[in-house]
């Protein structure tokens, strides 16, 4: 049976860490959909393309082939022989990516890349269980308080917790349109759960 596990949720709720561990336990690849939005934002910054200009962003994608490579040990995004992965988790990209993710044709392009990947896999993002893989057998939606998420993220980025929390709240607002639990998703508040606890909760819901 093909199993697609979708793990959606707000920024820094634990989606990618959890998806990587769940996938490892199931011996499946995992897919980080946000990396494609991040890669488009990175290309736009690099080539001075305004992130509000959808047509220009789509032209950029025509002239720069982006490829998501979902390896079991971590996802990579390549652009014409260059590995962009290490450039995608910066405060600059964080600040630009929500604007990129608001364009419907660009979202359609991302979704096409995701649906072309060989199943089965574990996939994480914002709308995996709703718009992209509504047929998935197991769906989760992760949340956590903004403070807890900021404390977690401040450990990975520079910046104090208050500034990180303000930036996360801002991004939550911009991403709200596409960040919704599917009607059949299980909601999990990870504020007071360890990574292991979240992973084991998800694995319990996966059919043997
Ligand atoms: N339940 C948890 N308990 C403690 N730390 C966590 C938990 N979930 C995630 N983290 C940590 O929080 C940070 C953000 O998690 P990440 O998986 O990148 O979130 P997302 O993919 O939702 O943005 C990482 O440093 C991760 O290790
Ligand atoms: N399926 C998705 C995945 C990400 N996005 C948007 C929303 C986020 O602001 C960016 C980056 O997503 P990513 O999951 O990498 O970001 P976080 O780790 O949650 O901070 O892309 C989206 O709109 N739809």
Automatic annotation (TrEMBL):
Q: What is its EC number?
A: 2.7.4.25
Q: Which domain of life is it from?
A: Bacteria
Q: Which UniProt keywords apply?
A: ATP-binding, Cytoplasm, Kinase, Nucleotide-binding, Transferase
Q: Which GO terms describe its cellular component?
A: cytoplasm
Q: What is its main location?
A: cytoplasm
Q: Where in the cell is it found?
A: Cytoplasm
Has keyword RNA-binding?
no
The UniProt entry, under InterPro entries, shows: Cytidylate_kin, Cytidylate_kinase_dom, P-loop_NTPase
- Pfam families of this UniProt entry? Cytidylate_kin
Please list the residue ranges annotated as the Cytidylate kinase domain.
Answer: 5-206
Q: What is this protein called?
A: Cytidylate kinase
- Phylogenetic classification of the source organism: Bacteria, Thermotogati, Deinococcota, Deinococci, Deinococcales
User: Gene name on record?
Assistant: cmk
């Amino acid at each position: 049976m093909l199993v697609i596990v979708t793990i959606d949720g707000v920024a820094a709720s634990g989606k990618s860490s959890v998806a990587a561990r769940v996938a490892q336990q199931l011996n499946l690849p995992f897919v980080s959909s946000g990396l494609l939005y991040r890669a488009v934002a990175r290309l736009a910054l690099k080539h001075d393309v305004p992130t509000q200009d959808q047509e220009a962003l789509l032209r950029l994608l025509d002239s720069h082939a982006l490829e998501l490579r979902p390896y079991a040990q971590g996802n990579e995004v390549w652009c014409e022989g260059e590995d962009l992965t290490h450039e995608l988790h910066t405060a600059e990209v964080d600040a630009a990516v929500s604007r990129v993710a608001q364009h419907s044709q660009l979202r359609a392009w991302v979704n096409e890349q995701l649906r072309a990947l060989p199943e089965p896999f574990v996939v994480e993002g914002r709308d995996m269980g709703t718009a992209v893989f509504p047929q998935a057998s197991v769906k989760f939606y992760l949340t956590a308080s903004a403070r807890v998420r900021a404390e977690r993220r401040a450990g990975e980025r520079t910046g104090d917790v208050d500034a990180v929390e303000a930036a996360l709240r801002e991004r939550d607002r911009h991403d709200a349109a596409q960040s919704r639990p599917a009607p059949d998703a299980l909601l999990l508040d990870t504020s007071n759960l360890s990574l292991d606890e979240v992973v084991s909760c998800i694995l319990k819901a996966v059919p043997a």
